[in-house]
Structure formats: structure tokens, C-alpha cells
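Example 225, ligand guanosine-5'-monophosphate.
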Amino acid sequence: MIKEKTKGLLIVVSGPSGAGKDTIISKVIENMKNIKLSISMTSRSPRGKEVNGKDYYFVTKEEFEKSIKNDELLEYAIVHNEKYYGTPKAKIEEDLNKGVSVVLVIDIQGALKIKEKIPEALFIFIMPPSMEILKERLIARNTESKDKILERFKTAYKEINEYTKYNYVVVNDKLDVAVDKVEAIIKAEKCRVDRIEEIYLNNKEEFIHEGLIDKEFVNEDIEIR
Ligand code: ADP
Ligand code: 5GP
């Protein structure tokens, strides 16, 4: 039996604030194997029940700038004209080589930087069903002041225009449907020939052993009872 061996996928998920990225991705990670969330670094302060090292690595502006200088980030951006957010490089490559997929939930500026550096990453855009629903979700989440919600809402109008730069768009109307779609996209991407070719070539011996390649069909191969 040949075993499926693929490198992990680098999965970049973006969409306007309140579209449901965190809600969807936490369910996908709960449901799927060999997949983890990358924890970003930020210079903003923790909100509500957020925990350092779990939701973000919360650092000062100076500490963040030191990480930039030391080339410790795969990408970073100033989000909502305010604070630094970035993806620590450490361990991502190691996880991918072990077959573990890594999800980055990052803003569009960061996603476009990754696209330049790593075009083979998988880019998924989470779209709200309407601006009205987006507004309702941001208000109901109750994690930002009215000013901050307005700022995020304004940014959303700009961000939504960028969805064409992603490989897939998932409208988050019914949560379970959106979660299913994201899981289906990840499963399908892991079966793509251009993603697994290298692995298959490296395992040619196993293919020959199982008679899957390099073997002509002969009558004796099938015994009909
Ligand atoms: P994001 O990570 O994109 O900023 P969140 O995951 O925090 O968005 O979701 C914003 C709010 O909308 C949260 O309160 C969440 O519970 C809610 N939410 C997410 N998806 C849905 C959905 N499909 N239907 C209704 N509410 C949702
Ligand atoms: P929040 O402050 O609501 O947690 O996040 C604000 C925005 O920052 C969200 O759009 C989120 O996707 C983005 N973000 C979170 N982590 C990163 C990161 O590492 N890099 C970039 N570029 N954006 C991030």
C-alpha cells in the first residue's frame, strides 16, 4: 500500500474584520488532522480574555521593530493604520516539512507579501454575505469601540475589492457550510498533482513495488472467480 506523503500546505486566510475568519479556522483546526494555526506577533494590547502566546505574542512597538531588524518575520504590516502585526518565521518551514499545514490568518497587505515570496501557498478569502451582516457581526462581537468598528468597516470596503487576488473565496453565511467548504478546499489542494509530484517521484520505489507504475498489463494479473 502506498502511503500518502505530502508536504504541509501554507494556508493564508484573509477577509474583512468580522467576516468570520477566526470562527471558521478554529473549527477547521478542531476537525482536521495535521494542521495548526500560526500565532502572530502584534504591538496591540490584549483584549478581553486574550492570552499571550495563544491568541498573539503581545510585544511592545520596540520589541516588534527589533524582530523586523533581526529578520524574524515572514511578513508584517501596520493594520488599521495603527499597530504592527506579523508572522514569526520560526518553525513554519519545519512544520511544513513534517507534513503539518500551517494557517496564517492575516490582513491583505500581509497576504500579498506572502504571495510574492511563496506563490505556491494557498490563498482563501472569507467574504461576508453583505455589508449589513458584516456590520451586525462586528457590533455583536462587542470587542471594539464604535470608532474602531467604523475604522474596520471603512477598511472592509477597500479589502473586499482584493478578493480576486486569492485562489478561493468562501462566503460565510451559514457557518457550518463555510467550514465544510474551507475543509474541502484544503483536502482538494493536498491531492493536486503539482503539489504531490515531488513526493511521488521520491517514492517511485513504492509505486513500482505496488505495481502501480512501470508494469505492463498481463492476463495473469486478474483472477476472476
Ligand atoms: P474575524 O476573525 O473575521 O474578524 P470573527 O470570527 O471574530 O471574525 O467573527 C465575527 C463575529 O461574527 C463573531 O462574534 C462570530 O461569532 C460571528 N460569526 C462568525 N461567523 C458567523 C456566521 N456564519 N453566522 C453568524 N455569526 C457569525
Ligand atoms: P485584530 O486586532 O482584530 O486581532 O486583528 C486585526 C487584523 O490584523 C485582522 O485583519 C488580522 O487578520 C490581521 N492580522 C493578524 N495577524 C496578522 C499578521 O501576522 N500579519 C498581518 N499582516 N496581519 C495580521
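Summary: Residues 12 and 123 are 5 Å apart (CA to CA).
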